[in-house]
Design a protein that fits this description.
transmembrane, Low temperature requirement protein LtrA, Low_temperature_requirement_A, transmembrane helix, membrane, 2 domains, mainly alpha
Amino acid sequence: MGLLRRSGSMQQATFVELFFDLAVVFALDRVVAGSLPGFFNDDPARRWGNAGRTLLLFIPVMYLWTTTAYLTGRFEPHRAGTQVMLLFSTFAMMIMGTAVPGAFAGEGLVFAVVFVTVRVARPAVISLGLGSHRLRRLYWRVTAWSCLAGVFWVGGGLAGGAAQLVWWAVAAVVDLGSAGLGWPAPGLGRHRNTIWQVAGHHLADRNAQLLMIALGETILAVGVSYSTHPHGLYETAGLVIAFATTTLLWRVYFQKAGELLPKALDAAGDPAGWGRRVAFAHAVMVLGIVTTAIGHGIVQHSHTQVTHPSWLATILGGPALFLVGRARLEHLVFARVSRRRIVGVALLAAAAPLMGRVSPLATATTAAAVLLLIALLDWRNAAGKPPEVPSPPG
Protein backbone atom coordinates (compact mmCIF):
# COMPACT_ATOMS: atom_id res chain seq x y z
CA MET A 1 0.00 0.00 0.00
CA GLY A 2 2.86 2.36 0.82
CA LEU A 3 4.31 1.90 -2.66
CA LEU A 4 1.38 3.54 -4.47
CA ARG A 5 2.18 6.89 -6.05
CA ARG A 6 0.86 9.95 -4.29
CA SER A 7 -0.32 13.19 -5.88
CA GLY A 8 2.68 15.39 -6.61
CA SER A 9 5.02 12.43 -7.11
CA MET A 10 7.89 13.17 -9.50
CA GLN A 11 6.96 12.13 -13.04
CA GLN A 12 10.45 11.92 -14.56
CA ALA A 13 11.97 8.49 -15.19
CA THR A 14 14.31 7.33 -12.44
CA PHE A 15 17.74 5.80 -12.87
CA VAL A 16 16.45 2.31 -12.13
CA GLU A 17 13.90 2.68 -14.94
CA LEU A 18 16.68 3.75 -17.32
CA PHE A 19 18.68 0.75 -16.11
CA PHE A 20 15.75 -1.46 -17.15
CA ASP A 21 15.80 0.27 -20.55
CA LEU A 22 19.36 -0.95 -21.09
CA ALA A 23 18.11 -4.53 -20.93
CA VAL A 24 15.36 -3.59 -23.40
CA VAL A 25 17.98 -2.27 -25.84
CA PHE A 26 19.80 -5.60 -25.55
CA ALA A 27 16.61 -7.62 -26.09
CA LEU A 28 15.59 -5.57 -29.15
CA ASP A 29 19.11 -5.92 -30.55
CA ARG A 30 18.85 -9.70 -30.19
CA VAL A 31 15.47 -9.66 -31.96
CA VAL A 32 17.07 -7.82 -34.88
CA ALA A 33 20.22 -9.97 -34.96
CA GLY A 34 18.30 -13.21 -34.47
CA SER A 35 15.94 -12.48 -37.37
CA LEU A 36 18.61 -11.75 -39.99
CA PRO A 37 19.73 -15.34 -40.83
CA GLY A 38 16.14 -16.29 -41.65
CA PHE A 39 15.94 -13.61 -44.33
CA PHE A 40 18.80 -15.28 -46.22
CA ASN A 41 17.18 -18.70 -46.36
CA ASP A 42 16.98 -20.15 -49.87
CA ASP A 43 13.30 -21.02 -49.40
CA PRO A 44 11.08 -17.93 -49.99
CA ALA A 45 8.36 -19.39 -47.76
CA ARG A 46 10.81 -19.66 -44.89
CA ARG A 47 11.88 -16.05 -45.43
CA TRP A 48 8.26 -14.91 -45.07
CA GLY A 49 7.77 -17.20 -42.08
CA ASN A 50 10.77 -15.56 -40.46
CA ALA A 51 8.86 -12.28 -40.40
CA GLY A 52 6.10 -13.94 -38.36
CA ARG A 53 8.62 -15.44 -35.95
CA THR A 54 10.24 -12.03 -35.46
CA LEU A 55 6.85 -10.50 -34.62
CA LEU A 56 6.18 -13.24 -32.04
CA LEU A 57 9.46 -12.35 -30.33
CA PHE A 58 8.86 -8.61 -30.52
CA ILE A 59 5.43 -8.79 -28.86
CA PRO A 60 6.61 -10.23 -25.48
CA VAL A 61 9.53 -7.79 -25.32
CA MET A 62 7.22 -4.87 -26.03
CA TYR A 63 4.55 -6.21 -23.67
CA LEU A 64 7.03 -6.53 -20.81
CA TRP A 65 8.29 -2.97 -21.39
CA THR A 66 4.73 -1.61 -21.42
CA THR A 67 3.61 -3.41 -18.28
CA THR A 68 6.80 -2.32 -16.51
CA ALA A 69 6.15 1.30 -17.48
CA TYR A 70 2.61 0.94 -16.11
CA LEU A 71 4.05 -0.55 -12.91
CA THR A 72 6.29 2.47 -12.28
CA GLY A 73 3.39 4.73 -13.22
CA ARG A 74 1.24 3.18 -10.49
CA PHE A 75 3.90 2.54 -7.84
CA GLU A 76 6.55 4.91 -6.53
CA PRO A 77 9.83 4.00 -8.32
CA HIS A 78 11.94 5.52 -5.53
CA ARG A 79 10.70 2.94 -3.01
CA ALA A 80 12.72 -0.22 -2.44
CA GLY A 81 9.82 -2.59 -3.17
CA THR A 82 9.22 -1.10 -6.61
CA GLN A 83 12.93 -1.11 -7.38
CA VAL A 84 13.14 -4.81 -6.52
CA MET A 85 10.35 -5.51 -9.02
CA LEU A 86 12.19 -3.40 -11.61
CA LEU A 87 15.47 -5.25 -11.07
CA PHE A 88 13.59 -8.56 -11.31
CA SER A 89 12.11 -7.35 -14.61
CA THR A 90 15.52 -6.20 -15.85
CA PHE A 91 17.05 -9.60 -15.19
CA ALA A 92 14.11 -11.31 -16.90
CA MET A 93 14.46 -9.06 -19.95
CA MET A 94 18.17 -9.83 -20.14
CA ILE A 95 17.58 -13.60 -20.03
CA MET A 96 14.83 -13.31 -22.63
CA GLY A 97 17.29 -11.43 -24.84
CA THR A 98 19.89 -14.16 -24.54
CA ALA A 99 17.29 -16.75 -25.58
CA VAL A 100 15.96 -14.79 -28.58
CA PRO A 101 18.43 -16.05 -31.23
CA GLY A 102 17.58 -19.67 -30.42
CA ALA A 103 13.94 -19.15 -29.47
CA PHE A 104 12.80 -21.21 -32.48
CA ALA A 105 15.77 -23.55 -32.37
CA GLY A 106 15.58 -25.23 -28.98
CA GLU A 107 15.67 -22.30 -26.54
CA GLY A 108 12.02 -21.32 -26.81
CA LEU A 109 11.22 -22.88 -23.45
CA VAL A 110 13.75 -20.64 -21.68
CA PHE A 111 12.28 -17.55 -23.34
CA ALA A 112 8.70 -18.58 -22.52
CA VAL A 113 9.31 -19.63 -18.89
CA VAL A 114 11.15 -16.42 -18.03
CA PHE A 115 8.49 -14.24 -19.68
CA VAL A 116 5.62 -16.10 -18.02
CA THR A 117 7.34 -16.06 -14.62
CA VAL A 118 7.74 -12.29 -14.55
CA ARG A 119 4.28 -11.74 -16.06
CA VAL A 120 2.59 -13.87 -13.38
CA ALA A 121 4.77 -13.13 -10.35
CA ARG A 122 4.54 -9.35 -10.43
CA PRO A 123 0.74 -8.93 -10.42
CA ALA A 124 0.34 -11.85 -7.99
CA VAL A 125 2.71 -10.29 -5.45
CA ILE A 126 1.09 -6.89 -5.91
CA SER A 127 -2.37 -8.41 -5.37
CA LEU A 128 -1.26 -9.98 -2.12
CA GLY A 129 0.20 -6.69 -0.92
CA LEU A 130 -2.79 -4.49 -1.77
CA GLY A 131 -5.01 -5.87 0.98
CA SER A 132 -8.53 -4.48 0.58
CA HIS A 133 -7.53 -1.75 -1.86
CA ARG A 134 -9.81 -1.42 -4.90
CA LEU A 135 -6.88 -2.14 -7.25
CA ARG A 136 -6.53 -5.65 -5.85
CA ARG A 137 -9.22 -7.00 -8.19
CA LEU A 138 -7.45 -5.52 -11.21
CA TYR A 139 -4.18 -7.30 -10.41
CA TRP A 140 -5.91 -10.58 -9.63
CA ARG A 141 -7.57 -10.44 -13.05
CA VAL A 142 -4.23 -9.66 -14.69
CA THR A 143 -2.69 -12.62 -12.84
CA ALA A 144 -5.43 -14.97 -14.00
CA TRP A 145 -5.13 -13.97 -17.66
CA SER A 146 -1.32 -14.09 -17.48
CA CYS A 147 -1.57 -17.68 -16.24
CA LEU A 148 -3.88 -18.58 -19.12
CA ALA A 149 -1.60 -16.99 -21.71
CA GLY A 150 1.36 -18.62 -19.97
CA VAL A 151 -0.04 -22.07 -20.76
CA PHE A 152 0.29 -21.28 -24.46
CA TRP A 153 3.70 -19.60 -24.16
CA VAL A 154 5.15 -22.57 -22.28
CA GLY A 155 3.27 -25.04 -24.49
CA GLY A 156 4.89 -23.49 -27.55
CA GLY A 157 8.31 -23.68 -25.94
CA LEU A 158 7.78 -27.37 -25.31
CA ALA A 159 6.31 -28.12 -28.73
CA GLY A 160 8.92 -26.55 -30.99
CA GLY A 161 8.72 -26.61 -34.78
CA ALA A 162 5.67 -25.37 -36.67
CA ALA A 163 3.43 -26.04 -33.67
CA GLN A 164 5.42 -23.47 -31.68
CA LEU A 165 4.27 -20.72 -34.03
CA VAL A 166 0.63 -21.66 -33.46
CA TRP A 167 0.95 -21.92 -29.68
CA TRP A 168 2.75 -18.58 -29.42
CA ALA A 169 0.36 -16.84 -31.81
CA VAL A 170 -2.55 -17.91 -29.58
CA ALA A 171 -0.60 -16.76 -26.50
CA ALA A 172 -0.02 -13.32 -28.04
CA VAL A 173 -3.72 -13.02 -28.91
CA VAL A 174 -4.70 -13.96 -25.34
CA ASP A 175 -2.27 -11.44 -23.82
CA LEU A 176 -3.19 -8.55 -26.10
CA GLY A 177 -6.89 -9.39 -26.32
CA SER A 178 -7.38 -9.71 -22.56
CA ALA A 179 -5.66 -6.36 -22.00
CA GLY A 180 -7.85 -4.74 -24.64
CA LEU A 181 -11.01 -6.14 -22.98
CA GLY A 182 -9.99 -5.03 -19.51
CA TRP A 183 -9.02 -8.51 -18.22
CA PRO A 184 -12.60 -9.71 -17.54
CA ALA A 185 -13.00 -12.44 -14.93
CA PRO A 186 -16.05 -14.05 -13.26
CA GLY A 187 -16.72 -12.48 -9.88
CA LEU A 188 -14.04 -9.84 -10.40
CA GLY A 189 -15.64 -7.88 -13.24
CA ARG A 190 -13.68 -6.03 -15.90
CA HIS A 191 -12.15 -2.61 -16.00
CA ARG A 192 -9.69 -1.02 -18.38
CA ASN A 193 -6.39 0.19 -16.95
CA THR A 194 -6.72 3.87 -15.99
CA ILE A 195 -3.05 4.39 -15.24
CA TRP A 196 -2.81 7.30 -17.70
CA GLN A 197 -5.09 9.28 -15.37
CA VAL A 198 -2.70 8.69 -12.48
CA ALA A 199 0.70 9.14 -14.14
CA GLY A 200 0.00 10.44 -17.63
CA HIS A 201 3.04 12.71 -17.86
CA HIS A 202 5.27 9.91 -16.67
CA LEU A 203 3.94 7.54 -19.33
CA ALA A 204 4.13 10.19 -22.05
CA ASP A 205 7.81 10.66 -21.26
CA ARG A 206 8.41 6.91 -21.08
CA ASN A 207 6.86 6.35 -24.51
CA ALA A 208 9.05 9.07 -26.00
CA GLN A 209 12.04 7.42 -24.32
CA LEU A 210 10.97 4.10 -25.81
CA LEU A 211 11.26 5.67 -29.26
CA MET A 212 14.78 6.80 -28.41
CA ILE A 213 15.62 3.29 -27.19
CA ALA A 214 14.46 1.80 -30.49
CA LEU A 215 16.39 4.40 -32.50
CA GLY A 216 19.49 3.72 -30.43
CA GLU A 217 19.11 0.01 -31.07
CA THR A 218 19.06 0.71 -34.82
CA ILE A 219 22.43 2.46 -34.59
CA LEU A 220 23.77 -0.32 -32.35
CA ALA A 221 22.64 -3.10 -34.69
CA VAL A 222 24.06 -1.63 -37.90
CA GLY A 223 27.23 -0.49 -36.13
CA VAL A 224 27.93 -3.95 -34.72
CA SER A 225 27.19 -5.57 -38.08
CA TYR A 226 29.52 -3.16 -39.90
CA SER A 227 32.38 -3.49 -37.42
CA THR A 228 32.29 -7.29 -37.07
CA HIS A 229 32.09 -8.25 -40.75
CA PRO A 230 34.30 -7.46 -43.76
CA HIS A 231 33.24 -4.15 -45.22
CA GLY A 232 33.94 -2.11 -48.31
CA LEU A 233 32.36 0.79 -50.15
CA TYR A 234 28.93 -0.91 -50.38
CA GLU A 235 28.74 -1.61 -46.63
CA THR A 236 30.07 1.87 -45.79
CA ALA A 237 27.38 3.45 -47.95
CA GLY A 238 24.83 1.25 -46.17
CA LEU A 239 26.11 2.48 -42.80
CA VAL A 240 25.71 6.11 -43.89
CA ILE A 241 22.18 5.48 -45.18
CA ALA A 242 21.26 3.68 -41.93
CA PHE A 243 22.43 6.62 -39.84
CA ALA A 244 20.63 9.11 -42.10
CA THR A 245 17.43 7.06 -41.91
CA THR A 246 17.62 6.86 -38.12
CA THR A 247 18.17 10.61 -37.89
CA LEU A 248 15.17 11.25 -40.14
CA LEU A 249 12.95 8.93 -38.09
CA TRP A 250 13.94 10.88 -34.98
CA ARG A 251 13.23 14.18 -36.70
CA VAL A 252 9.85 13.12 -38.08
CA TYR A 253 8.75 11.80 -34.67
CA PHE A 254 9.69 14.84 -32.62
CA GLN A 255 8.50 17.43 -35.13
CA LYS A 256 5.70 18.90 -32.99
CA ALA A 257 3.53 15.88 -32.11
CA GLY A 258 6.26 13.98 -30.26
CA GLU A 259 7.29 17.13 -28.40
CA LEU A 260 3.77 18.04 -27.29
CA LEU A 261 2.60 14.74 -25.75
CA PRO A 262 2.44 16.06 -22.15
CA LYS A 263 0.47 19.17 -23.20
CA ALA A 264 -1.85 17.06 -25.34
CA LEU A 265 -2.50 14.83 -22.33
CA ASP A 266 -3.57 17.85 -20.29
CA ALA A 267 -6.03 18.81 -23.04
CA ALA A 268 -7.47 15.30 -23.55
CA GLY A 269 -11.04 14.81 -22.38
CA ASP A 270 -10.47 11.13 -21.56
CA PRO A 271 -6.80 10.78 -20.49
CA ALA A 272 -7.04 7.02 -19.94
CA GLY A 273 -8.53 6.22 -23.36
CA TRP A 274 -6.30 8.77 -25.09
CA GLY A 275 -3.24 7.32 -23.40
CA ARG A 276 -4.03 3.76 -24.47
CA ARG A 277 -4.29 4.91 -28.08
CA VAL A 278 -1.03 6.86 -27.78
CA ALA A 279 0.71 3.77 -26.39
CA PHE A 280 -0.54 1.68 -29.33
CA ALA A 281 0.67 4.30 -31.82
CA HIS A 282 4.11 4.17 -30.20
CA ALA A 283 4.14 0.37 -30.34
CA VAL A 284 3.48 0.55 -34.10
CA MET A 285 6.28 3.08 -34.53
CA VAL A 286 8.71 0.99 -32.51
CA LEU A 287 7.83 -2.07 -34.61
CA GLY A 288 8.52 0.05 -37.68
CA ILE A 289 11.90 1.13 -36.30
CA VAL A 290 12.88 -2.45 -35.42
CA THR A 291 11.82 -3.60 -38.90
CA THR A 292 13.88 -0.77 -40.40
CA ALA A 293 16.90 -1.95 -38.37
CA ILE A 294 16.44 -5.47 -39.77
CA GLY A 295 16.29 -3.96 -43.25
CA HIS A 296 19.62 -2.22 -42.73
CA GLY A 297 21.05 -5.50 -41.49
CA ILE A 298 19.95 -7.08 -44.76
CA VAL A 299 21.78 -4.31 -46.63
CA GLN A 300 24.97 -4.99 -44.67
CA HIS A 301 24.89 -8.73 -45.41
CA SER A 302 23.66 -8.73 -49.01
CA HIS A 303 25.74 -8.33 -52.16
CA THR A 304 23.08 -8.97 -54.77
CA GLN A 305 21.74 -6.69 -57.46
CA VAL A 306 18.15 -7.72 -56.72
CA THR A 307 15.96 -7.22 -53.67
CA HIS A 308 13.83 -10.24 -52.82
CA PRO A 309 10.14 -9.60 -51.95
CA SER A 310 10.62 -10.34 -48.25
CA TRP A 311 13.57 -7.93 -48.21
CA LEU A 312 11.45 -5.29 -49.94
CA ALA A 313 8.71 -5.73 -47.35
CA THR A 314 11.28 -5.21 -44.60
CA ILE A 315 13.35 -2.35 -46.02
CA LEU A 316 10.34 -0.34 -47.23
CA GLY A 317 7.77 -1.70 -44.78
CA GLY A 318 9.69 -0.57 -41.70
CA PRO A 319 9.53 3.16 -42.55
CA ALA A 320 5.94 2.70 -43.76
CA LEU A 321 4.90 1.18 -40.42
CA PHE A 322 6.61 4.04 -38.61
CA LEU A 323 4.74 6.61 -40.70
CA VAL A 324 1.41 4.88 -40.03
CA GLY A 325 2.01 5.03 -36.28
CA ARG A 326 3.23 8.64 -36.54
CA ALA A 327 0.11 9.64 -38.51
CA ARG A 328 -2.04 8.12 -35.78
CA LEU A 329 -0.08 10.04 -33.14
CA GLU A 330 -0.60 13.30 -35.01
CA HIS A 331 -4.33 12.68 -35.07
CA LEU A 332 -4.30 12.06 -31.32
CA VAL A 333 -2.39 15.29 -30.65
CA PHE A 334 -3.93 17.65 -33.21
CA ALA A 335 -7.17 15.89 -34.31
CA ARG A 336 -6.12 16.02 -37.96
CA VAL A 337 -5.07 13.58 -40.63
CA SER A 338 -1.40 13.90 -41.56
CA ARG A 339 -1.45 14.01 -45.34
CA ARG A 340 2.35 14.12 -45.57
CA ARG A 341 2.67 10.81 -43.75
CA ILE A 342 -0.04 9.21 -45.86
CA VAL A 343 1.70 10.41 -49.03
CA GLY A 344 4.95 8.97 -47.67
CA VAL A 345 3.35 5.55 -47.16
CA ALA A 346 1.87 5.74 -50.67
CA LEU A 347 5.28 6.60 -52.16
CA LEU A 348 6.92 3.66 -50.39
CA ALA A 349 4.18 1.33 -51.62
CA ALA A 350 4.47 2.68 -55.17
CA ALA A 351 8.26 2.24 -55.11
CA ALA A 352 8.06 -1.43 -54.07
CA PRO A 353 7.34 -2.90 -57.55
CA LEU A 354 10.22 -0.88 -59.00
CA MET A 355 12.81 -1.92 -56.42
CA GLY A 356 12.88 -5.66 -57.12
CA ARG A 357 15.61 -5.33 -59.74
CA VAL A 358 17.90 -2.99 -57.82
CA SER A 359 20.20 -3.65 -54.86
CA PRO A 360 19.01 -3.56 -51.24
CA LEU A 361 21.22 -0.49 -50.77
CA ALA A 362 19.30 1.35 -53.53
CA THR A 363 16.03 0.30 -51.91
CA ALA A 364 17.15 1.60 -48.50
CA THR A 365 18.29 4.85 -50.14
CA THR A 366 14.83 5.25 -51.68
CA ALA A 367 13.20 4.81 -48.26
CA ALA A 368 15.56 7.42 -46.79
CA ALA A 369 14.70 9.82 -49.61
CA VAL A 370 10.97 9.52 -48.82
CA LEU A 371 11.66 10.25 -45.14
CA LEU A 372 13.83 13.22 -46.11
CA LEU A 373 11.01 14.61 -48.23
CA ILE A 374 8.59 14.35 -45.30
CA ALA A 375 11.07 15.98 -42.91
CA LEU A 376 11.62 18.88 -45.32
CA LEU A 377 7.89 19.37 -45.81
CA ASP A 378 7.42 19.34 -42.01
CA TRP A 379 10.08 22.01 -41.65
CA ARG A 380 8.62 24.14 -44.42
CA ASN A 381 5.12 23.84 -43.00
CA ALA A 382 6.26 24.98 -39.54
CA ALA A 383 8.65 27.74 -40.65
CA GLY A 384 7.59 31.22 -39.58
CA LYS A 385 4.46 30.03 -37.78
CA PRO A 386 3.70 30.35 -34.05
CA PRO A 387 3.94 27.16 -31.97
CA GLU A 388 0.90 24.92 -32.35
CA VAL A 389 -1.41 24.21 -29.45
CA PRO A 390 -2.47 20.54 -28.99
CA SER A 391 -6.14 19.83 -29.64
CA PRO A 392 -6.82 16.11 -29.05
CA PRO A 393 -9.99 14.68 -30.65
CA GLY A 394 -13.06 14.68 -28.45
